[in-house]
Amino acid sequence: DQQVKQNSPSLSVQEGRISILNCDYTNSMFDYFLWYKKYPAEGPTFLISISSIKDKNEDGRFTVFLNKSAKHLSLHIVPSQPGDSAVYFCAARDTGNQFYFGTGTSLTVIP
Amino acid sequence: NAGVMQNPRHLVRRRGQEARLRCSPMKGHSHVYWYRQLPEEGLKFMVYLQKENIIDESGMPKERFSAEFPKEGPSILRIQQVVRGDSAAYFCASSPWAPWDTQYFGPGTRLTVL
Known about the structure:
The complex is a heterodimer of chains A (111) and B (114). With 111 residues, chain A is mainly β. In chain A, 0% of the residues lie in helices and 55% in strands. In chain A, the strands form two sheets. In chain A, strands 2, 4, 5, 9, 10 and 11 form a six-stranded mixed sheet that branches. Chain A has a five-stranded antiparallel sheet with strand order 1-3-8-7-6, with no helix packed on it. In chain B, the strands form two sheets. In chain B, strands 2, 4, 5, 6, 9, 10 and 11 form a seven-stranded mixed sheet that branches. Chain B has a four-stranded antiparallel sheet with strand order 1-3-8-7, with no helix packed on it. By secondary structure, chain B is mainly β.
């Protein structure tokens, strides 16, 4: 059973525009959420995280939003750059301290 | 400070052989996690280890799979009598301070079973 879902397998965005990647989860006990970025033939790289006590966390061009009532997480990248083209995974940690990953969204930023 | 190291990067085995995957965590990291990514799927947790201890192996298949993290040397994920369904990318991650803190991933080992 997939507790963390990324329903869009791919997304294409023009350079300079905003990229919005979405993630839904089912377990209301998740207390910590992360986004990872993955290039081909490399391991995932930590990007940004948010605690369940917050609804927004910003780091440069990257902002993560958390809507606990909707069990929804999103990553905003603005402005998008060609180097942002990668697969993005969202992950959530439960109170048993185990991480669950989504299936990933492949982002392509078109120059 | 070198990142998480995994070797080999690619491993080809025939059905019935053994596969050994190695992971050296980042310097100063004492928590190691193994994940498997099957085609078209996300990362699935397998096992969490600290030095000389298996802390959580709830994601590990009950048979043929084992993991260790000895006092000296890398963590090893061992798959005995591999089958075609074991073909996947295996990622190792490590974290510094606390269990399940932000994890830093290695480049992965792609296992292909012929």
